[in-house]
Amino acid sequence: MTAIDTGARKKPLLPTGVLAGTLRQILLPVAAALVVLVAWETAVRVLDVSPVLLPPPSMIVARLQELFFPLLLKHAIPTIWESVIAFAVSSVLGIALAGLLSSSKILREALYPNVVLFQLIPKIALAPLFIVWLGIGSQSRLAFSVFISFFPVVIATLAGLDNVDRDLLRLCRALRASEWQTFREVRLPHAIPYVFSGMKIATTFAIIGVIVGEFITSQAGLGYLILFASAQAETALILAAILVLCAFGLVFYGLVAIAETVTRNRFGA
Amino acid sequence: MDAAISAAASGPAPATDAPPYMSVQRVQKIYETAGGAVEAVSLADFSVTSGEFVAVLGPSGCGKSTLMMMIGGLETTSAGHIRVDGTEVTAPRGDFGYVFQDATLLPWKSVLDNVLFPIRLEHGRTRDHLDRARELLELVGLWDFRDKRPRQLSGGMRQRVAICRGLINDPKLLLMDEPFSALDAISRDDMNAALADLWDRYHKTAIFITHSIREAVYLADRVLVMSRRPSVISHDVRIPFPRPRRMEMQETAEFNEICGFLRRKIEEGYQRA
Ligand SMILES: Nc1ncnc2c1ncn2[C@@H]1O[C@H](COP(=O)(O)OP(=O)(O)O)[C@@H](O)[C@H]1O
Ligand SMILES: [Mg+2]
Fold first, then answer.
1. Which residues form the ABC transmembrane type-1 domain (chain A) (predicted)?
2. Is B80 contained in some domain?
3. Ligand 1 pocket by Cβ (under 6 Å)
4. Which of B120, B137, B171 is the last residue of a domain?
5. Are B160 and B111 found together in one domain?
6. Do B1 and B77 belong to one domain?
7. Closest CB from B104, B122, B149 relative to A171
8. Burial of A193 from C-beta contacts in 10 A (0-12 / 13-18 / 19+)
């Protein structure tokens, strides 16, 4: 008997199987979140914490209900709009730059190390520069948001374009495919899952970019609202705004995930 | 015994005035690597007539793939010349069909689209070739699988798709590098039968790389034995069986005699090394 044998015979703690597995994947995180919420609610009530410090979840939900239409939605719209535009621009730019880098050896050698280096800079620190350059309008927020969200797209797409099986590239050579055909027919379809993994990260980064921009300059948007509410010590409103932001982030991510499924079914990658 | 077969079976191709369809003239290949020069092919010198099915048989590492890549224009020669159909081979050509050891299908395309891929690259209009794709896929029994993706197929099915893809643009020369070596023995027999059928129908000139003696004898009109060190064509053996070839042929004494003869020649090559 080897150690591996005995290890394999150990009974699992929770039921296994495909259905049980899926159920667990949904139930466990939901249960964990509920436990935290209930603990939060109870702790705040029992310890009589000031709602300015930490309002209970029930109060946040009440705030959300009360102010969603009159206030939160109004501020959510510019934030959502700008995030979506920034995301779209950075996806297109990111894929195009990755395509360029993968097709030109010189460009790649010149630029890729810089892209990686830039990736490491705490880019948020550069936000005020964008205001200096582009003023306080939405263009500075958009530019900043594009700036921070396009790096993950470039890096992931480039990895996908480069990772192609050498045998497939040899096939392309044998079939006398041009560089462009090889790119369009083989590299790009192969990169699709990579592109989407970059784009999923970009959704979050695009929102962060817009919110940071709103913290600095804006007269509207959820970032502005959060800053405004904190000046008024309206903690419940801050958290309600963050809740709206989370919901938007989830939907945004979900839409990109759906787009990925559709594209993959189409190309079967 | 050996001498009798050798006299009957080997010897140069019958002399004709016309230049051969393909000639490999004193070809050598040296790879320059970080660890020094590697002589992958020392000297290859042979010619092939139009419509001939030539198997190149040798142990792994003897330079078979390198030889095929050079014939296919995918690898340069270090010395010598390769001419096919009157012109020197310098790059991949449209009158060649290629089948590699791995099926190398595009995983995101259907079986049918994979077969049509060379056409799509050539001029984009695949519709005119649908009939031919259908004919080929029906011949290898895969027409019903035309909408499947490669990952839904077995290894043998994938390799059949790759062969259909190699034949779709009606090449004059089909180059196959150990197309069945990744398959188990039973699917391999099936594949050999399928390829023999395709052959009886289309009569292409073919270079078929293999390290299986039986496969070579079953499929080929001629077997070139390649040795390892030096990497040269050590024997050129004519296979006298009529076509169409039948699986049962493999049980005849003559078939096994030729296989035995080739095996001894390959072993001699080892002993010399
Ligand atoms: N691209 C390459 N660079 C360097 N050496 C190579 C390369 N391709 C093959 N070789 C070497 O050349 C020899 C013959 O290889 P190959 O043609 O693949 O043989 P086979 O197909 O008969 O197994 C081997 O020693 C192999 O290591
Ligand atoms: Mg090989």
1. 76-256
2. yes
3. B 31, 33, 38, 40, 58, 60-66
4. B171
5. yes
6. yes
7. B104
8. middle
Q: Which residue of A has its CA nearest to B116?
A: A175
For ligand 1, atom 24, name the residue with the nearest CA: B61
Q: Residue A2 pLDDT more than 50?
A: no
| CATH number, domain with residue B222 | 3.40.50.300
Contact B92 A174 (CB under 8 A): yes
> How large is the average pLDDT for residues A14-36?
83
Contact B233, B45 (CB under 8 A): yes
Interface check for A269 against chain B (CB to CB < 8 A): the answer is yes
A176, B94: Cβ pair inside 8 Å?
yes
Judgement on whether residues B76 and B1 belong to the same structural domain of the protein: yes
- How many CA atoms within 13 Å lie on the side-chain side of B32? 3
Whether residue B82 is found in the same domain as residue B194 = yes
Residue B113 has pLDDT above 50, yes or no: yes
- Encoding tokens for residue A216? 């600095």
Contact criterion met (CB below 8 Å) for B209 and B174: no
Q: Which residues contact B157 (CB under 8 A, 6 or more apart)?
A: B142, B145
Residues B174 and B166 sit within 8 Å (Cβ to Cβ): yes
Count of domains observed in chain B: 2
The answer to whether the CB of A225 falls within 8 A of the CB of A234 is no
The best mutation among B27, B29, B30, B31 to test binding of ligand 1, ranked by most ligand atoms within 8 Å of the C-beta, falls on B31
Q: Are residues B165 and B34 in the same domain?
A: no
Is B83 within a domain? yes
- When the pLDDT of each residue in chain A is averaged and rounded to a whole number, the result is 88
User: Nearest by CB to A267, which of B104, B108, B122?
Assistant: B108
Rounded to the nearest angstrom, the distance between the alpha carbon of B60 and the centre of ligand 2 is 6
Within a domain: B128: yes
Q: A255: pLDDT confidence band, cut at 50, 70 and 90?
A: very high
The pLDDT assigned to A1 comes to 40
Q: What is the pLDDT of residue B140?
A: 82
- Residue B54 sits in the same domain as residue B141: no
Q: pLDDT tens, B187-196?
A: 788 788 888 8
Of the three residues B122, B143, B171, the one that is the final residue of a domain is B171
% pLDDT > 70, chain A: 93
B3 lies in the same domain as B75 = yes
Residue B102 forms contact with A (CB below 8 Å): yes
Measured CA to CA, the distance from residue B246 to residue B248 in angstroms comes to: 5
Contact B47, B20 (CB under 8 A): yes
Minimal CA separation from A264 to chain B, in Å: 8
Task: Tell me which chain B residue has its CA closest to the CA of residue A176.
Answer: B92
B15 inside domain: no
Two structure tokens written together for B257: 């005699």
Interface residue B146 vs chain A (CB under 8 A): no
Q: Are residues B115 and B236 in the same domain?
A: no
Q: Domain containing B136: what range?
A: 104-171
